[in-house]
Structures are given as structure tokens and as C-alpha cells.
Write a structure and sequence with these properties.
Elements: H1 2-7, E1 12-14, H2 27-35, E2 38-42, E3 50-53, H3 56-64, E4 68-69, H4 99-105, H5 113-117, H6 120-137, E5 141-142, H7 143-148, H8 150-160, H9 164-178, H10 184-203, H11 213-222, H12 228-242, H13 244-258, H14 260-268, H15 273-283, E6 294-296, E7 300-302, E8 305-307, E9 312-315, H16 317-320, H17 355-372, E10 377-378, E11 400-402
Parallel strand pairs: 1-2, 3-9
Antiparallel strand pairs: 2-3, 4-6, 5-11, 6-9, 7-8, 10-11
């Protein structure tokens, strides 16, 4: 049996992390999906190779199965997309339960329906102010600079309990962390500065009764439920994750402006917008390559392939969201798709805790932009919209519009 599995080993495919135009789906990932449900890849950084799992049911299984862990990555030079993904001891992204569960529990209240609803009206008000400023300045405008970039920063700052004066610095640090083109040293320095900021902020909140994330973390540290280092690591992770909304919404509006029939349908059927946002979240290729790896803690068979204990394993949420067995005609943007069990916010213990918040922000953006700017259109040809270079999270660098 061991020999049979050995003979079935797929070849190792090199997977370069390249800048793709617009919302083009990664052609290498497309080929890997065709080659089989479980393949092997070598990424630009780190060493060796890793398994890649692409089918929807397998992705959900691996991400929710305790036989695959994150902590075992420590001290290993696993092949990875960028130098930024070197595991840091104690970082929540590399913890396994029960430590991971304990740490996430400390901020869970902020990301419940009630917690997210707490910032809805303030978020809508901040968004209206940004759109007001853009329209008063008149066309043309950069929708990214005027609205899509400052809005998620302001909302995450509100949820995190970051004073307005500190939000610009957090935004700058986040962009440096997420862009490998600046180099690992620049990214690590930015992460250190952000960590120092949150250490000071959380340290001041040990007696707080606030419902924001910094207050919840401060109280948890004060009660010795988590350490300050753990609190800071979680705060940094959440803050960085909030930046994804800028890029995701940039791709959403790039699509709506280059496919005006989709925008017109959402204008005429506003009740469809929440479902449409979910479909856009499923469809857009929100990242380059893959994120963080896991390690098989024992031998596991996945679709007839033996993954050995100690092997590195990646899952592709992008591929899972295009699985034709779950999403008929997966390359089609279908606002009537129901059900839509996409995994854009991950799955299992490490799923994105801010998924509900991201949906809220996306829905508010669609409402405000489509309703208040009925004549909105690109100010440049679609192919001239510049997309970010060397970024792990994909999206337009700017979105020139007129109305």
C-alpha cells in the first residue's frame, strides 16, 4: 500500500506569484485544479514543496480537522508565497486549539451580530461624509483614494477602539506589511511599530467597560486570561485583515463599472444587494497564491492521496469558490445563486472573525455608491485601471471615476 501511494505522488509544480491583470483568475491555479483535487507545489519563498488542496469539500475538511495544525510550522522553512509568512511564535494565526480558541474568545463579542450592528450607523455616517466630500470636489475622482481606502480604515478603527488620530498610521503600516515589494525588512519594521502602538493602547484599557476590541483585549489581559503579547498579536492580525475590504470593494466596483448591466440590476433591485455582495465575494480573486500553511500531524488520506505526518499542506479558498461540483457554472457572476456556501472568509477555527463586518461594509458601500452616484462610470478605459503590484491582497491601486 505504501508503494501504491508513492507511485501516485503528483509532480511538484512551481507556482510563481505574479501580478495578474484586473480580476483575472490565476492560470497556474486553474491548471492545478484540473490536474487533481490534491497536487504538489513549490512557491517563491521558503524551501521544499507542499500539498495543495483545491476542492470545496476537501478545503473545508482540512481547515476544520485537528489532524492538520498550524503550530507545527514553527521552526520550519516551509515553501511559501512571501517572506512575510514566516511564523512568529505566539501569533494567533499559528496557534491551534485550545490556545487559539481561548484567544479568539476574548474578542468574540465585538464580531457578533450585535457587536457589528453597534457600528452600523456610525459607519453609514462616516461613509456619507466621504461621498459628500468626493461629490463636492467634483469629477473626476479616485474612488479608491476618496472612499474605498479611508472607509474600511475608519470602520475598523471604530470597532478596534483606535482614536481617529492613530488610524492613518495604522493604514500606512498595514500597506507596508501586505506588500512584499517593499522587502521583508520594511514589512517587519512596520509590524513592529504597529505592535508597539497596540501594546500601548491595550495596556491603557485594562479597566475599560467599552465594547471595542482594544477594550475587550485590555480587560482580558487584566484578568490574566491572555498575555499582552497575545493581545497585541491578535490586534495586529485583525487590523491587517480589515485592509482586505479596500481591495475587495475595489475589485467589486471595477467589475460593476466594467459590466454596467450588473450595476443597473442592483440599482433596480436593491433587495438583491446582500446576495449580490456574497456572489461577488465568492467570485473575485481576492489574493495571490495561498496564505498560511498547515502541517499534517498524522497520516491522512485525501481523495486517494496519502499525506504523510509532517507534510506541509495549503488550501486554496479561491479554487474552492470555483468548484463546479458546488457552484454550477462557477466562472459566471450569478446574483441569483442560492445557496452560496463560499469560503471567502475561510473555514474552521481560523475563519476570519470579521466576515460579518466585511459584509456590512461592502453592502453599505454598494448602497451609497450606486444610489448616490447613478451616473458613475470609469474615467479611463478599463484596461488602464492600475492594479496593485507585488501585493498579497489583490485590488486596484486607484479607480478613476466620473459622473
Amino acid at each position: 500500500m505504501r508503494e501504491a501511494f508513492s507511485r501516485a505522488m503528483p509532480p511538484v509544480r512551481e507556482w510563481p506569484v505574479v501580478d495578474l491583470p484586473g480580476s483575472e483568475f490565476d492560470p497556474v491555479l486553474t491548471e492545478l485544479m484540473r490536474e487533481g483535487p490534491v497536487t504538489r507545489v513549490s512557491l517563491p519563498d521558503g524551501e521544499g514543496w507542499a500539498w495543495l488542496v483545491t476542492r470545496h469539500d476537501d478545503v473545508r475538511m482540512v481547515t476544520d480537522d485537528p489532524r492538520f495544525g498550524r503550530e507545527a510550522v514553527m521552526g520550519r522553512q516551509v515553501t511559501r508565497s512571501a517572506p512575510h509568512f514566516v511564523p512568529a511564535r505566539g501569533a494567533v494565526g499559528f496557534l491551534d486549539p485550545p490556545d487559539h480558541t481561548r484567544l479568539r474568545r476574548s474578542v468574540a463579542a465585538a464580531f457578533t451580530a450585535r457587536g457589528v450592528e453597534r457600528v452600523r450607523e456610525r459607519s453609514r455616517g462616516m461613509l456619507d461624509e466621504l461621498v459628500d466630500a468626493m461629490t463636492e470636489a467634483g469629477p473626476p475622482a479616485d474612488l479608491t483614494e476618496a472612499v474605498l481606502s479611508p472607509f474600511p480604515v475608519a470602520v475598523m478603527g471604530e470597532l478596534m477602539g483606535v482614536p481617529a488620530a492613530g488610524r492613518h498610521a495604522l493604514h500606512t503600516w498595514t500597506r507596508l506589511i501586505l506588500s512584499p515589494s517593499h522587502g521583508a525588512e520594511v514589512g517587519e519594521r512596520a509590524k513592529g511599530e504597529m505592535s508597539d502602538y497596540f501594546a500601548d493602547l491595550v495596556g491603557l484599557r485594562s479597566d475599560s467597560t467599552g465594547e471595542d476590541v482594544a477594550s475587550l483585549l485590555g480587560v482580558a489581559v487584566g484578568r490574566d486570561e491572555i498575555t499582552l503579547d497575545e493581545a497585541v498579536g491578535l490586534a495586529v492580525l485583525l487590523q491587517i485583515g480589515g485592509e482586505a475590504v479596500t481591495n475587495n470593494s475595489g475589485q467589486m466596483f471595477h467589475l460593476l463599472l466594467t459590466r454596467p448591466e450588473l450595476a443597473e440590476r442592483l440599482r433596480s433591485e436593491p433587495a438583491l444587494r446582500p446576495r449580490a455582495v456574497d456572489e461577488l465575494l465568492r467570485w473575485i480573486p481576492h489574493r495571490n497564491a495561498v496564505g498560511l500553511s498547515r502541517i499534517a500531524l498524522e497520516d491522512v488520506d485525501v481523495k486517494g492521496v496519502r499525506i504523510r505526518a509532517g507534510d506541509a499542506v495549503y488550501v486554496s479558498y479561491l479554487a474552492a469558490n470555483r468548484d463546479p461540483a458546488v457552484f454550477p457554472d462557477p466562472d459566471l457572476i450569478d446574483f441569483d445563486r442560492d445557496p452560496n456556501p463560499h469560503v471567502s472568509f475561510g473555514f474552521g477555527p481560523h475563519h476570519c472573525p470579521a466576515g460579518m463586518l466585511a459584509r456590512l461594509e461592502s453592502e453599505l458601500l454598494v448602497d451609497a455608491v450606486l444610489d448616490r452616484l447613478p451616473g458613475l462610470e470609469l474615467a479611463v478605459p478599463p484596461e488602464d485601471v492600475p492594479f496593485k503590484k507585488g501585493a498579497l491582497i489583490r485590488g486596484p491601486e486607484s479607480l478613476p471615476v466620473t459622473w
